[in-house]
Every structure is written in C-alpha cells, then in structure tokens.
Amino acid sequence: MEKLPFKSVRTRSDRPLHTIHTDTMGPITPTSFPGNNRWIVVFVDDFSIYAKVYCITNKSESGDCLEKYLRETRNLRGKNEKLCFLRSDNGTEFTGGKFSEIIDEEKATFDFAPPHTPQLNGTAERFNKTIQNKIRALMFDSGLPESMWSLAADAATYIYNRTPHKSNGFKTPLSLMNKNIKTSIEPVEDSQEYTTYRSVAEIYRDPVTFKQAMKSRESQSWQAAVDEELKSMTENNVWTLVDRPLRENIIDSRWVFKRKISPDEEKIYKARLVVRGFKDTNDYEIRETYAPVSRMTVIRSVLAIINKYDLEALQLDVKTAFLNGTLENDIYMEIPEGVKINEEYRKDYVCKLNRALYGLKVSPKRWNEKFSEVASKLGLENDINEPCLYTWRLEGKLVILVLYVDDIILASNCSVKLAEIRDNLCKEFKMKDMGEPKMYLGMEIQRDRENRQITLKQSEYIERILERFNMSDCKPQDTPMITRQAKKIESRNPEKTEEMKTPFNGPFREAIGSLLYLAGVTRPDIAYAVNLLSRRQIAPTNGDWTEVKRIFRYIRGSTNVGLTYRAEANEMEVFTDSSFGDCKDSKSTSGYIIKIFNDTVAWRSKKQTLVTRSTCGAEYYAASEVCQEIISLDKALRDMIGRTFYPVTIRCDNKSAQSCTEMEGSNRLKCFDLPVSEIQNTLDDRERTGVKVPMTEIHGDFIKQCVKEKRVKLTWVASKENLADIMTKPLPLPVHKYLKDKITNSKS
C-alpha cells in the first residue's frame, strides 16, 4: 500500500548537485539479461530532477554507482560542482562501505530519512514509481522477455530526462543540467540527433567464453559462427591431430565472439579461434616477428591520388588472413572447445599447427610474407621503405594496392586490370569484395566522383570514445585548449590551482590513447593538444584530466569535422613551425603540415630532441625534420604515379632560418651535433685507420644538402598564414578556426 505524502515544507536547491536523492529497488525477478542484475539504484538531482539509474547485482555496488554518477554529471556540467547533501533512507548500502567513504571524501552531509517514513525521501520514491510505470509500458509495447527489464530501465530514464516536467517550469531535466542543450526550434543534424540513445540501442553484450556463448539466447547464431570458423580451419589445413608429445609445451586456445553491423544494417555474428601465443616458449628474433603495415600518410596519399586521377577503387577484406601463413617451428595446441570429438581423445591427442593461427607471435610476419609472395607473382612491386604499398605501371596503366594487415584498398585507372588483380587475389585467398571504400580502419570515406571530392572523418569513432569516457552529453567547446594567456589568468586563483595539482587516478592513459588515434588519422586540429598531454601520463593531475576533457568537449562539438580532398592543385606544399623553448626542459615543439594537390596528407606535432639556443635554431631544426618525411613521401608518390614533386616548397615564418639553409656554414647553429657516443666512435676509428672522418652537424647538413640538390626550397610565409602554427601552440578561436578550415579544406 502506498503511503500518503506529507505536506511539502522543503525548499528546492538553487544549483545542480547541491542535494542528491537516492534509493534502491529490488530484488527484481527474473534477473536481467544482460548482466544478471537484481537491483536498481537511482539518483535524482534536487535542482534539475535529472536522474540516472544503475542496474546492479548486489546492493553493495551502490558506492561504485555513486562515484560513476558524480563523474558523469560533472562531465555533463563541464565543471566540478560541490555535493553538499545526500538524502536517503537508512539502508545498509548507504550507511557504510564505499558509499560512506565517497561522502566523506566529498565532505558532504548525509540526510537520512527516519525509519518507516518513505515520504521524507519522497523525490527518490516518486521517481521509483515513475520509472517502474515507464518500464512496464516499454516492456508491454516491445514484447521483449521480462529478463530485459534493465534495458527498458535505461530507455525509460533516457526518455524521462528529455521530457518537460511541471515541477521545474516545464523544462527538461537534461536542459537544466546541461545548458548547452538547444531550446530553439532550429533543426538538429541527423548525425547528432540520436547519438546519446546509442548506448541504449547497443543492448547486447558479446559473450566472453565459449560456454557463455552456447548458453545464451543466441546460441544458434554463435554456433553457426563457430562452425564457419572451424570450416575455415579445415579448408586451410591449420592443424593435424597427433599423439600428445612428451616434454613439449602445449598451448591452449580461446574463442573471441563479436557482433558487427554490416553496411546494410544486418547483424553479423563473428567467432574467431585464437591461440594463447604468450605461452609460446620459443625464442624469436625481432625479424621473425615484426610485420610491417602501411603508414597512415601513405593511405591518405593513396586516397588523394584516387580522387585526383579519378581512379576506380575497391576495398577487399581477407578472411582468416593469418591462416595463410605457414610455420617453420613445431607448435602444439590443445584441441579447442567446439571441435566435435570424443572427450577421451582430448587427453591423448593434441593439434600440431601447420598454419599461423591468430595469437601466435609469428603469425603476422608469416601472413605478410605470404601476401608479398603472391603480389610479386601478379607483377606488383613494393619498396623496402614502403613494404605494404604495391604498384604496377605500364604504358599509362596504373595499379595501386595498399595493405594494412588484412584490409586492402585496390585502385587503378584500368577497370580490366583492376578486375584481373582482384580475381587473382581471390583465387589465392578467401576474400570479400566490399566495393567502393566506405569504412577503412575506422575512417569513414565519402566519395563524390562527380564533384571530384573525398571526405575522411571518424564521427562513429568519436561517438564511441565519448561514450566510453562518459562525455556523450558534455558541453561542447570551440577550441581543444585554452591559450597560454588564459592559463596565466587562471593560475592566479590559489584554491583552484591547488585542486588542479591533486593526483588523478582515472583512465588518463586510455583517454590519451584513444585521442592519439583520432589525431593521427583525420584530426590534425587536436594533434598539438594530444601530444602535449601525452607527456603527462606518468603522474597526471586533476588539471591534466580537465584539459583532456576539454579535448573531448571540442570533438563533441565538431563530430563531423574531417579532411576533405578536392584536388585543387598539382604540387606538394609544406608548412613548418616551431615554438621556441616552450617545454619545461627548455626544448622546443616542432610541427609540420604536408599537402599534395592542396590536400592534407601528413602532419606532426613533436617535442624536439635537442635544446636550441634561439628561435632561428628551433625553426631550422623543425624544417630539417620535415625534409625526411618529404623525401620518404616523394619516393612513395614516384612509385605510384611516376612523377616527382621536387623541388618541394617549405613555407617557414622565420627568415633567419631560411637564410641559414643557403649558407655554407652558420655559427648560430653549431648546437646541432652528433651524439656523444657517436663522436667517440668516430675518433676511435680515425685513431685505428688514420683516415679523417668528417663529424657533421646532422640536421644542419641534411637540410642544406636537400636545398643544394634542389629537393626542397624554403620560402617565407606570414605567421597568420602558416598552417603549421596550429601544431605548436594553443590558439585563440578566430585563428584556430581559420587554420583548421585551411588544413581540412572546409568551405565553412
């Protein structure tokens, strides 16, 4: 029976997170799928009535949920709001353990309701009733099994937070919690409208063990995937059953299960058998295990060439690629789960591997050697410096193949030759022709052949990492970092400065790793910010994490930003810059942007390895570093399209550095020298042989030689037009936006 409410006597909080109401519901039967949860813990903000529900297996997990709730709501607010009061009943899940520890750490106050008076915790109790009704309605309407109530709870809370409520002036809880939410009637882009709901839509979790997969409701689909994988093993003669050898290391295996969504929105069930290669006791040299992959610079250059010359392009996916490699050593594996065999035989027999199964240390190398052998038979040539870039050219006909493990992009100006290469590859390997490239290594490729344009972006990847770090609903920012001047102003607040110095115990490295991939593939506009923060991974502070979250907020507001290739020029153009002595150890930061056909294909933001003594020295060093990338890239482009871009124009905003490259010697740059160990080796060689070996200044002589041989030429550019400026320092909004649009070829 429901108790009547007391007459209202309280005053609502005047800001978010001042007072939080919490309660639990359960035990709920049946247990939920997925997760086997039996309880729900709810948190309701007193000011905005913004709510979150967490499904848990035991009430003792309430403390973890409180910690997660505070982190998520603070990320949503964009600042570290102070928690003052937490109102709950006297349940043991609230009065001790981690829950109580968090309240103490927050220096907040418990506000317990007396026994048998749920009216005094009315906000949470009323929310429980509301969410229960929504869950029942959703379950009834969807026709889903009762065990999926946890998924309905997530959906119901999502709807609740986006529904106007009378108690807060007919505003939505989410809009009060995050003021960045639009309230006008202007349209919302389709790509962002349902982004947040994705966490609810992706309701099924992949099984982690073979037994779990076979006991799940989708066991038939998983069994079909296992059978398909084992069929591939049989077709490729991956192993041979032999008597169990004595004194031999026997490695076990495991299954990896994954659901994928095809371009046609169909669900695909994948099962892959992997061996636990870390248990392989064989000693391998680095040359036996190292397998190359294509550099992202080369992949982007291939796409720029496809667009420039309007080439036909295909994407191919090699199925069970590693199984094509053969082994040289004897490796034994236990008979895997799923193989239909008498259980008694498992004690007496093992699998002797004939092929390079996934998980072995040597598998990538063996596969790469096999593919290179097949490509060579088809007339495709590669270079020692770009072993995964294959080309064929004859009488104006051109074929380009770029390989990244088992993902292939194949392009040609001759459709007949393209089909010939594809068909021959399909005869050698089991492959899937995916047609025109649309998604490659997490990079979304949108091609408009009519307007000669290709767009590269990672909007789906951005959504995944934002969800992973609870930043999906965060407040967007216009720049990835605040300027140095703004930092100086903030540092004048001693309380805030002390708080920012507190050590951060959270997923800092994981966040940096996720952002590094984004910055290295399609987002040069965040390269400097990510590079700077990646130097603080050993002992990050709250201040460092705040800066990481700012990058998340920046990409939240620029999800659809990427690189656009328009092929508006015919040359290679390079911009280089440095920020003199900006690091704590007095080293400088180098940065460069490389464009071919006016399309950005390479960039870098990097801390210099030497301490320079002047701005001229730092700029000169930066220019010399980019020369190495220019020579490597030009050689790859020669292999692909049969032309050189020499002399390449390097645009630098320091006239002194430009002048130094044209001099035979310069006292100002004598800080560039060989490492001490190499100097001593050179002196020892002269002592033994009597022959003088010149000890050159590496960077100085290299760029001068490039200028002398007319490989490059340095020209001056105004700082405001130097695109590499974005790689060396945080910039104010107008400058950042201008350079970002120039780099990405945005027309906005």
From TrEMBL:
Give the GO biological process terms: DNA integration; DNA recombination
Q: Which CDD domains match?
A: RNase_HI_RT_Ty1
Q: Where is it found, in Gene Ontology cellular component terms?
A: DNA polymerase complex
Q: Does the keyword Cell membrane apply?
A: no
* GO MF assignments: DNA-directed DNA polymerase activity; endonuclease activity; hydrolase activity; metal ion binding; RNA-directed DNA polymerase activity
- Pfam families per the UniProt record, alphabetical: RVT_2
Entry protein name? Integrase catalytic domain-containing protein
Look up and give the organism this protein is from. Answer: Trichogramma kaykai
